[in-house]
Amino acid sequence: MVSPVKTDFAGPRIDKGLDNVYVKETSICFVDGQRGRLLYRGYDIRDLAAHSTFEETVFLLLEGRLPNREELKKTKADLAAGRTLPPFVLRLLRSMPEHMPPMDVLRTAVSYLSNFDPERDDTTRAANQRKARRLVAQFGTVVATYERIRKGHRVLRPDPKLGHAEDFLRMMSGRKPDPVRARMMDVAMILYADHAMNASTFAATVAASTRSDLYSTIIAALSTLKGPLHGGAIEAALRGMEMAATPERAEEYVLGTLRNHEVVYGFGHRVYKTYDPRALIQKEFARQLADLSGDDRLYRIATAIEETVVREIGSKGVYPNVDFYSGLVFQGLGIPTDLFTPVFAVARIAGWTAQVIEYWEDNRLLRPLDWYVGPKDLVYVSVDERP
C-alpha cells in the first residue's frame, strides 16, 4: 500500500525546474558551482583539456578510470572502425527533405540506426557499453555526412588513421584540419562530453528508468537538447553578438536586452554562480582563432558583452557559461551555425550513454507527483444542455 503524501493546508513544496531534487548518486561528473570546477570521474576538466583526448575521455566516462596504453589504443581503433555508417543509413540521409533542421536529421538517423545494431535489445552492461561506443563513433559521421549531402558535395568515408575530432572536421569540410584546429575541436568535445544532470541527461534518465533501450534514451536526450534554453543556446549567443553589430554598440545591446527583461544568451547557469571553467578555455580558443583569421570583430564584441553583463548582474552570480564563446570557436573551425547543437550532441553522446548505463545499475522508474489545483466537483451535462 502506498502511503499518502503529507501536505499542509497550503499544499506541498513544488520545486519548479527540479532545482533542489536529486534523482541518483553518481561517480561520473561533479559540477562545483560555487568554485567553478568541473570534474569527470574526479579529474579536473582543465587537466583533461590540457592533456587528454576525446577518445581517452570516452573511456574515462564509460569505464570510470583512465585507460592504459593498450586500452587507449583499442578505444581509438574501435571508434575509428565504428564511424562507418550502414549503407541504408546513408540512403536515409540522402532522402531527408530539403532544409530539414540538422538536429531533426540526427534524431531521425539515430532512431533508424538502432535497427542495424544486432545488440539493440541486449540489456546486459557489456552490450550497452559496446552500443555506447558505436553511438559515439557514428554521431559525428551522421552530422558530417548530412552537411556534405545538403551542400551537394561528395560524401567522405571515415579515415581510421585520424583522431575522432580531426576526422569529424575532415568529413564535414572536405579537408584535413591543421593540428591547431584539430586540437581545438578535440578539446571542445572533451568540454561538452558530460555535465551531470542537465535537461537532456535527465530526459535520457527518465526514458532509461522505464527500461527502454539505449537508443530510445538517446533520442529523448536529443529531443531535449534541441531547445534554445539548452543546446540551442550556442547559436542564440552568436546571434546576440551579431545583433550587437560592433564592439562600441555591445553595451547598448546588453542594457537594452536587460531592460526588456530578455535573455542575454550564453550567460548564467543553474549550477555555476561564478565563471564556467569551460567558458574560460573556449574564450582563449576564440581569441586564438580570431588572431589566426585576422578578423577579431566578433571576439571584441563578445568581450564587450561579457564586460557589460558581469558589471551589471555579475553580483547575482551571472557569468559566461560554456555556450557563450563556443559559437565563436565552432564558427572559427568552419562549422555552420545550424550545426552547433548537433556538434554539442556529437560530444555529449559520451556522457549521455555513461549516465544511462550508470542509472541502470540501480534503476527505479521515475514517477514524480504534480499538485492538482483544478475543480473537483463538476457535474457532467450532455452536449445539448451546454451553453
What does the secondary structure layout of this molecule look like, with pairings?
Blueprint: E1 29-32, E2 37-40, E3 43-44, H1 45-51, H2 54-63, H3 69-82, H4 87-94, H5 102-113, H6 125-150, H7 164-173, H8 179-191, H9 199-209, H10 214-225, H11 233-244, H12 250-259, H13 277-293, H14 297-313, H15 322-332, H16 340-360
Antiparallel strand pairs: 1-2, 2-3
Short précis:
The chain is mainly α. The protein contains 16 helices and 3 strands.
Order of helices and strands: EEEHHHHHHHHHHHHHHHH
Rounded radius of gyration (Å) = 22 Å
Main beta-sheet strand count, sense and barrel state: 3 strands, antiparallel
Number of strands: 3
Distance between the termini: 43 Å
CATH architecture verdict of the largest domain = Orthogonal Bundle
**Shape annotation:** globular
Average pLDDT taken over every residue:
95
Q: Going across the major beta sheet, what is the strand order?
A: 1-2-3
- CATH class assignment of the largest domain: Mainly Alpha
Number of helices: 16
Structural class: mainly alpha
Structure description:
This protein is mainly alpha-helical. It has 2 domains: 29-229 and 336-360, Citrate Synthase, domain 1; 233-332, Orthogonal Bundle (Cytochrome p450-Terp, domain 2). It has 16 helices and 3 strands. Helix 5 (102-113) runs antiparallel to helix 10, helix 6 runs antiparallel to helix 16 and helix 8 (179-191) packs antiparallel against helix 15 (322-332).
